[in-house]
Amino acid sequence: MEELSLHILDILENAREAGATKILLWIRESRQEDVLKFKIIDNGRGMGKEMLQKACDPFATTRRTRKVGLGLAMLKATAEACGGGLRLVSCPGKGTRVEASFQYSHVDRPPMGNLAGSIGVFLVGTQSIHLRYIHRKNGKRFVFDSKAFLKQAGGLSFQEPRLFALLLNSLEIEDKD
Ligand SMILES: Nc1ncnc2c1ncn2[C@@H]1O[C@H](COP(=O)(O)OP(=O)(O)OP(=O)(O)O)[C@@H](O)[C@H]1O
Ligand SMILES: [Mg+2]
User: Fold this and answer.
1) Does the pLDDT at position 32 exceed 80?
2) Which ligand is nearest to the CA of 88?
3) Strands across the sheet with 22-30, in order?
4) 42-61 pLDDT per residue, tens
5) To the nearest 5 percent, what fractions of the chain are helix, strand and coil?
6) pLDDT in tens, 109-144
7) Cβ atoms of residues 68 and 87 within 8 Å
8) Residue nearest to atom 20 of ligand 1 (CA)
9) Pocket of ligand 1 (CB under 6 A)
10) CA nearest 15: which of 145, 134, 122, 135?
């Protein structure tokens, strides 16, 4: 995949498919420390030991529409090719944590891409997931909370076109560094 934001979207979709009601997306980019990391923590159904060991194998999937699951396998390959790696921690019935790291300056590291768009698309497709998104980028900290955002919107849903534009706007992080 050409963009990290698409990998992030994929991991968010996994959390949704696992029945998560709460998701924390945490991203840290530091040019100074030459690192880019993200963590996605969900409270979905989790994975048992056996599934956890197989989860990064392209043929391990519990989806029924096709026989391969590529999300985690591709993310792992990309992270490892960029001087980083992938870590999965999961507990059945409690949830899953996916952590990916990359060398920030690695020539093969994909760009972040349209993160606001990916998160926006994810939220439009969900009715009741509470997403907290924290992004630290070169010393600046950005926080977005989907529940707080909806509360402020006075009961409108993410499907409302007016609200979607506002949502994309408020997901956009200051990118001047
Ligand atoms: N957050 C999660 N909670 C519970 N199980 C998960 C989670 N993420 C992944 N899994 C399990 O690992 C499998 C592999 O995930 P992966 O993203 O690699 O492929 P997929 O979601 O099955 O298919 P694709 O991502 O290609 O649409 C999933 O089918 C699911 O069983
Ligand atoms: Mg997936």
Assistant:
1) yes
2) 1
3) 85-91, 95-103, 35-42, 22-30, 130-137, 140-145
4) 999 999 999 898 888 877 67
5) 35, 25, 40
6) 999 999 999 999 999 988 789 999 999 998 899 999
7) no
8) 69
9) 10, 14-15, 18, 42, 44-47, 51, 55, 60-63, 69-73, 96
10) 122
Task: Tell me the CA–centroid distance for residue 88 and ligand 2, in Å.
Answer: 13
Residue 100 CA: distances (Å) to CA of 9, 150, 156, 162, 168: 13, 29, 34, 34, 24
> SS3 of 135, please?
strand
Ligand nearest to the CA of 69: 1
Complete domains list, the chain, with CATH:
4-171 (3.30.565.10)
Ligand 1 midpoint to CA 147 (Å):
25
Cβ neighbors of 106 (< 8 A, separation 6 or more) are 82, 83
User: By three-state DSSP, how is residue 137 classified?
Assistant: strand
Chain position carrying tokens 């402020």: 152
Q: Among candidates 102, 125, 95, which has minimal Cα distance to 31?
A: 102
Residue 169 CA to residue 116 CA, distance in Å, equals 8
